[in-house]
């Protein structure tokens, strides 16, 4: 079993890698790159400043991994590294120096150009798509450690890791020289123990949520900031939305007066606390509850229909399920949204009452659960009917067991195998359905974020969400296999010699 899990994890990682890589190559090579500026108001405002616009355009392409971009000052710095004799001659108007640099670096793919107005030199180099993919994976996992910060302006920065307890942060594993001050900490929110040791770097969002990391966008709170009374290490107390556990390093030369008054060190950059949950938390809440709903209702109805095979309740159920399966998902969602809002007074849009109201979650979650019930009922009903004619059922009847006892203690026990094996598919369908339901109900989750990112040409966000959804889907399949062996120890996931 351990051997199977090990090899299966390896195959799962390879699968995630392949799917993400194919998606990355398709998006970053087939989608025209200029489309990313269509939703950027800053780019539109720079239309009257050609030089600034060119610089902004190339800086954006560089940040997104399309190109390497050197301004004239960067080129001069590169030349100075190789030849000290040019140091006195270097300025932005010395064309000979730049042209010589161009000749030396032409073979590396660098192309020297000039700004439209000022004629200042700059250089760009197209990054091959496979190299871009390599850079994405090389930066995917970031591990924090005491030598992560290399600040020439702070050479005396202490470097250590230690457990400590403070009134402002509680029990923490604190670092110095690390990017984050608190690498492990505890609080009252689920899962109660948190870490900043290992982070996923899925790229930088653009043009929506411009400048923020994709991971930060989907994992941080939303809505209005949530100010609370905060006591800093210096003893200063004030009302602030700052999340002290998220403190990150900032070079001492750039600290302002307020930051100095609040903190005893250079770890002053922190995220804000928000009133509403993060995208990933909202999607997890609706997704997990919808799976519970689909299995609770689906199993109950399937068992009831199987026990009354051929009778009115079974025929009615089969007919209803057949109709529901044939109805397009979009029509299904709109129909139940109308029923819920008209007859039960539930909001037909998530923002109507907001994330603070339980009513906002009811329709999206219930409808998401109902989407996968039809297939679940058909599958479990059919399996239980097949089992009803098995030899072990006939033997149980001969022993004098009632229909209810046979159904619950024997047939349903064996039916747990297909039920468990269907969990991965249900989770995958939930992820797919969430994209539609969250969009229709304007739920601020990852499902809605995906089409929004596609429309806004936010390629890094699309890749990041593709990676997250692919990982969840593949892990669901792995979890389903492991659960099968727990439900029925007779099932072996390892192939044996001779095909047995």
Topology (SSEs and partners):
Elements lengths: L1 H29 L10 H5 L4 H14 L3 E5 H11 L12 H11 L4 E5 L6 E6 L2 H10 L2 E3 L16 E7 L3 E7 L5 E5 L6 E3 L2 E3 L13 H6 L2 E4 L2 E4 L5 E4 L7 E2 L7 H6 L4 E3 L4 E3 L2 H29 L4 H15 L2 H15 L15 H12 L2 H16 L2 H8 L4 H19 L1 H18 L5 H10 L3 H29 L13
Antiparallel strand pairs: 1-3, 2-3, 4-9, 5-6, 6-7, 7-8, 10-15, 11-12, 13-14
Helix pairs in contact: 1-18, 9-10, 9-12, 9-13, 9-15, 9-16, 10-13, 11-12, 11-16, 12-16, 13-15, 14-15, 15-18, 16-17, 16-18, 17-18
Keywords, separated by commas or semicolons:
elongated, 18 helices, 3-stranded antiparallel sheet, alpha+beta, 500 residues, 4-stranded antiparallel sheet, 15 strands
Could you characterize what this model shows?
With 500 residues, the chain is α+β, with helices and mostly antiparallel strands. 53% of the residues lie in helices and 13% in strands. It is built from 18 helices and 15 strands. It has helices at 2-30, 41-45, 50-63, 72-82, 95-105, 129-138, 214-219, 257-262, 279-307, 312-326, 329-343, 359-370, 373-388, 391-398, 403-421, 423-440, 446-455, 459-487, and strands at residues 67-71, 110-114, 121-126, 141-143, 160-166, 170-176, 182-186, 193-195, 198-200, 222-225, 228-231, 237-240, 248-249, 267-269, 274-276. The protein has a 4-stranded antiparallel β-sheet, with no helix packed on it. Helix 11 crosses helix 16 and helix 14 (391-398) runs antiparallel to helix 15 (403-421). It starts with a helix and ends in a 13-residue tail after the last helix.
